[in-house]
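Q: What structure does this chain adopt?
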Amino acid sequence: MTLVQMQTRPASAHPVHSTVADSMDAAGPQVWEDMTVEVALSVMAAARTGHLVVCDDDGLCTGLVTRARLTAVRDSSGYTDRIRLRDIADVIGPFASPLTTRAEAEPAMRCRRLGVLPVVDEHGNALGVLALSR
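A:
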């Protein structure tokens, strides 16, 4: 699991900086890695969301997939209806720690061109998502 921030800071180090935990949204729909691309797109449409948190068989977050990524996979020449979310290599990570500050997370998200970043606890459980500020 790749965290955006690997070291923690005491709360008093930067009291004016909000943390990811202070500004994250609910994780939203969580789906399993063995779900097909078509089913994931259907879940996304039904939930009226642009992303899904992807979990393994133990319920631990393995990443996040967006509508744009699923549509690109579905529209590719190598697509078959047997492709599962686990087959999409870039579904895995990165993740943010709830202790990461927004000032640290947002530049990392921009650098990686991520609009949404999963926030996970130290065990890999999805706590929420951080959306990039416009």
